[in-house]
Amino acid sequence: MQRLLTTILAAAFLTLTGCTEMKREDLFNKYTDGAQLIVNTDVLRNVLTIQAINANPIAEMPIPQGLQIEVSGPSRAEVFSMDGKSSLAPFDGLMEIGIDKTRPISSSNPVDLTFSATAPGFLPATYRFIVTDTFFSMPTLHLIALDDLPAGVDFVEGTVPVEPELGVFSPITYTTPLFSDKPESAALTFQGGTLVYDENGQPLTGDLQLEYLHFGNREAATVAAFPGGTFAAAALAADGSPMGPVNFAPAGWFNISLKAGARHAKSFSEPVEATMELNPNTINPNTGEPIRAGDQIPIWSRDEGSAAWSMEGLATITSFGEGPLSITFGISHLSDWAAAFSLGESCSTGAPIVVNFETPYPTLLDAPYSIIQFVDQISGQVVARPQWARMVDGTKAVVYGLPANRVLTAQVVTSFNPLCSEVLYTSAPFLSVCNGSALVSTRAYTQPNTLTVEARFSAVCPSAGDEVLIRPEALVYYKETGCPHLTLLTYINRGRFLTDRLVRNQTYDFTVYFNGERYEFSDITVATTELDIDDYTLRIDLDGDFASFIFENVKLDPEFCGLLLGE
């Protein structure tokens, strides 16, 4: 009698907590002819996938080459790669983060991680993420290439002469040029006599090399590259006290580097004067009107190590005659500096908003996964972080980080990546009340050009023939037309997934990361077909607005199969 082993796998199949090589071999030795055993090794929960991309959406190289991401923070010891390893590394710009499913996650017991991304030729970027629930999130790290800047960014370099004990030889100013995609300039002025110190408080002298970037807010790609994202899980007030989550509406910001050889400047005896012209179409979220002279805007600096923003004070917007709107403020130390409105107090620990969803999907069998983002209606700024959930009618989502007492809308979007995301549906406005609830209806949401796709996915170990059938649990990513980056499609649950985000006759690339390996299914057209590829078989059947995808005989890595079968 043929032995059939149906194995339900997480991407953490092999290196499970407490599961040794001998235990796995003993487990497989227990199988007998005719037995069907379901082994649920899905012990890791994937609540977070980090994606690192080139911030320039038209870059020839969309994923930074030589990318490295260091993970730190209070929860570092609790997270693993999805194949169960404590070491974490990006794969095609993606880093899937797994955590023990038995570990509770809440606002009082969050997963707190900091990601520091580096790549040759790119500015280093540090991002902090605090996970307070089990909803999946896929934040994007936008890295800036100095030789391939996105629209709306200026780069200036120069020399600042500093004499021993005398400081800056004479006042010197560097101003950014004007371009059609960024008609606002910015300037840095070093006053004569200013002393410059490194991070250890030691003086720097000689011809210091200055590099600084000025970011405006006219281009979506520029705003998407706001350091750490426009939602900060934590920030500090001007007196150093914690502020909780902050939703930023940026007007502009600087990244500044000043160094002597390998030694970097950190502080000054006298503040460096920064002048920043502002886009007059910037909305002041406190008034609901475009900014004008006399408005005040908060000034923030960001600690490179902790990735925490600190409020440094307020700058008053000025204008001279018909000249541009601008602000001037002092820079006392080097880091990212931003002029950005805050959308006010956010609903954080102990006072979330419960969002009740009315959807057109009555049961789990009908409901696809959807990406939901929340938008401040006045500023147009996306707030908190997008959520991914299976939108069954009556779903209740406990959402932290939304700004309090603001008029918001919920949007169904196609991607976590804002540069590739399309808004599919916008709900009616609702008022955000901390420790309250809101009703969001998506029942009017229709996708006339898409299909409901049910897919089934099974894999085999070539050495075992038909005796072993593997039905994995993993995330499925895909590339949409016109976007060079993978985005999340859905979740394979016991070899099956459901989605309504594929378009008839459109061609896609699909990717699954499983046990540390990448499985690609390229140039798949949504049309009735049968494909026999070297590494898998695919059958697609279309019936009206429904499509069936059957992926079979996906060949797994021999080393993985050897460990799996105890060979």
From TrEMBL:
Q: What is this protein called?
A: Uncharacterized protein
Taxonomy, top ranks, is: Bacteria, Pseudomonadati, Bacteroidota, Saprospiria, Saprospirales
